[in-house]
C-alpha cells in the first residue's frame, strides 16, 4: 500500500478503530523512550549527563546527513547502477560517517566518553532513529492492509463522496455455457457528465484502472457497464467524474446482488452474429473477449484476443455493445466464434464461454 491508500483507509476507519491505533502508537513511543531513559540514568551515575545530551543531539543532526549521503548519490544515478551505488554507500560511507562522528565527538566532550560508550550510543541511536521507524512503518502497512480488507468486506461510502448521479439499472443474471451464472449491470450517466476515471478495490485498497486490464467493467462515454461471474468477487468501483458545471466528484458503487435458487432466474446469454458484427445480450468488456475470424477461404479460423485499446479496431468504447461492427482488417473475414474468459478460484483453470456462429 502506498501512503495515499493508507491515508484513505485511515479516514474510512471507525473512530473506535482509530483510537486503538493511537493507543498502539503511544505504546510504541514509550517503548522507544525507555532505552533513552535507562541510558540517561547510567550516564548520570557516571557524571556524564551533559556529555550524553550533546552526543544525542549529534545523533539527531547526523541522521539526516547520513541519509542524504547514502540516498542522494544513488538517486542521481540511473539504471541498475543506482542500486549498486546505494549499497556501496550504505555499507561504507554511511556507517563510517555515523560511527566516526560519534567516536570523534565523544572523545572531545568534557567529561569525555570512552570508545565503548560512544560505540554503544551510536548503535542504540541507529536502532532508535532508523531501525524502529522502519519496523513501525512495515507493521503499520501490514495492519493497514488488514483494515482495508475488513472495510472491503462491508463496503460503504466515504465521507467525502458525492451521490452517484448515474441511473443504476438492477443487476441482471445470465447463464453462460462453460462458465455458469454471470451478473451484468449498467450505470447510465446523465447528459453532460464526463467520466474521468475508475478505481477498483482489490483485496482492500483502491487502485486506479487506467492503463491496466479491467475485465469486470467497461465504459461507453459516461456510462459504465459491469460483468462478473458468480465465481468472481463482486466488483467494488469508485467513479471520478466531472459534471456539466465543470466540478469534479467521486462516488463508490457496490453492486447489490441477491442470491438465486440455482440460477432459476437466469436468462441464457446469447450473441447474435452479423457480417463482421456482433449483438450480445449485454455489454461485454473487451478484455474478456477472444474472436475467431476467417482469414481466407479454406483456412482454419484465426483466434485473437481483443485489447481495451486496439489500434486496428478503434472504438469509442472499451465495451462490445449490441450493434458492434468490426472494421475490415487485412484479410479478415467474418467472425465465426466468440470466447469470453472469466477468473476462477486459485489453482483452477479459468473457464471460457464459447459462442459459435
UniProtKB/TrEMBL annotation:
- Residue spans crossing the bilayer: 20-43, 55-74, 80-99, 119-140
Membrane among keywords: yes
Which keywords has UniProt assigned to this entry?
Membrane, Transmembrane, Transmembrane helix
Membrane among keywords: yes
Q: Could you tell me what this protein is called?
A: Uncharacterized protein
Species, as recorded: Kinneretia aquatilis
Amino acid at each position: 500500500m502506498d501512503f495515499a491508500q493508507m491515508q484513505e483507509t485511515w479516514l474510512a476507519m471507525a473512530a473506535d478503530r482509530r483510537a486503538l491505533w493511537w493507543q498502539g502508537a503511544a505504546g510504541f513511543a514509550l517503548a522507544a523512550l525507555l532505552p533513552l531513559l535507562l541510558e540517561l540514568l547510567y550516564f548520570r551515575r557516571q557524571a556524564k549527563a551533559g556529555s550524553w545530551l550533546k552526543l544525542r543531539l549529534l545523533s539527531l543532526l547526523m541522521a539526516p546527513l547520513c541519509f542524504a549521503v547514502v540516498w542522494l548519490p544513488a538517486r542521481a544515478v540511473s539504471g541498475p547502477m543506482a542500486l549498486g551505488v546505494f549499497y556501496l554507500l550504505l555499507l561504507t560511507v554511511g556507517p563510517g560517517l555515523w560511527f566516526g562522528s560519534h567516536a570523534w565527538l565523544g572523545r572531545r566532550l568534557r567529561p569525555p566518553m570512552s570508545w565503548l560508550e560512544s560505540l554503544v550510543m551510536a548503535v542504540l541511536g541507529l536502532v532508535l532513529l532508523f531501525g524502529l521507524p522502519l519496523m513501525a512503518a512495515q507493521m503499520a502497512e501490514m495492519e493497514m492492509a488488514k483494515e482495508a480488507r475488513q472495510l472491503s468486506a462491508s463496503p460503504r461510502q466515504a465521507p467525502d463522496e458525492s451521490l452517484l448521479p448515474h441511473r443504476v439499472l438492477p443487476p441482471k443474471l445470465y447463464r453462460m455455457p462453460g462458465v455458469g451464472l454471470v451478473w451484468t449491470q449498467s450505470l447510465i450517466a446523465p447528459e453532460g457528465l464526463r467520466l474521468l476515471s475508475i478505481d477498483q478495490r482489490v483485496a482492500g485498497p483502491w487502485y486506479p484502472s487506467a492503463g491496466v486490464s479491467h475485465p469486470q467493467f467497461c465504459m461507453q462515454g459516461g456510462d459504465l457497464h459491469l460483468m462478473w461471474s458468480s465465481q468472481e468477487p463482486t466488483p467494488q468501483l469508485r467513479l471520478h467524474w466531472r459534471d456539466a458545471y465543470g466540478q469534479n466528484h467521486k462516488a463508490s458503487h457496490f453492486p447489490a446482488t441477491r442470491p438465486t435458487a440455482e440460477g432459476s432466474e437466469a436468462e441464457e446469454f446469447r450473441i447474435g452474429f452479423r457480417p463482421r458484427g456482433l449483438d450480445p445480450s449485454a455489454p461485454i468488456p473487451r478484455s474478456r473477449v477472444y474472436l475467431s475470424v476467417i482469414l481466407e477461404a479454406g483456412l482454419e479460423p484465426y483466434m485473437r484476443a481483443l485489447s481495451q485499446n486496439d489500434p486496428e479496431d478503434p472504438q469509442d468504447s472499451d465495451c462490445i455493445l449490441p450493434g458492434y461492427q468490426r472494421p475490415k482488417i487485412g484479410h479478415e473475414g467474418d467472425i465465426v466464434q466468440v470466447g469470453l474468459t472469466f477468473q476462477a478460484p486459485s489453482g483452477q483453470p479459468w473457464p471460457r464461454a464459447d459462442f459459435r456462429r
